[in-house]
Predict the structure.
Amino acid sequence: MLKTGVLISGRGSNLQSLIAACATPGFPAEIACVISNKADAGGLDHARKANIPAHVIPNRDYPTREAFESALDAKLEEHNVQLVCLAGFMRILTPWFVNRWRDRLINIHPSLLPAFPGLDTHQKAIDYGAKLAGCTVHFVRAEMDHGPIIMQAAVPVLNGDDEQTLAARVLQAEHKAYPQALRLIAENRVNVFEERTFITDATASGEALFNPEA
Ligand code: GAR
């Protein structure tokens, strides 16, 4: 069982999808702890309800980013965490932390990277006129929203979408993609070579997703 730590800052719907996946029989990972930098993060309740140790480490309590990240690191080590999942964790991590957890630290971002890194991805996709949107699970590197891609899922951008409707469609894809990516890693099927991942025994339908369709 791959011992996984999940870092959150808010609602925690992706955390909930990971908790649900880990609860299914035979799933090869378990959530060893959840850490939030915000005391009022809704996701903490998901952890507590699932009897997962939930910790608050407020970044504001620490004089520097490094001091904050040392506290995160110590808590992850305390729980013997082997893989860290960022799930709506809204702090930029320093190269120290990122390198310490290199290839053991993953993130989910609500766009098809490298398109639309950063915040407001859905509005940016709509404003650009993109016809496909989606999400990306990737290993974390020091550069924000950058790093070897493990998995992506695409959804259409529909006429009349606003930020909320598109975010909701992407979020449904996120809730499938993140557990699948965690499973692949826990099954030791993800290898990083020259900053690309290679997935053992990967399958995909091979079907194209068209928008518009005709
Ligand atoms: C998710 O859409 C996630 O992809 C995004 O924040 C949301 C968190 O929702 N993450 C980022 O934008 C990171 N760059 P959740 O708390 O319900 O999982």
Remarks:
- The helical segments are 13-22, 43-49, 65-78, 95-100, 121-128, 163-186.
- The two ends are 46 Å apart (CA to CA).
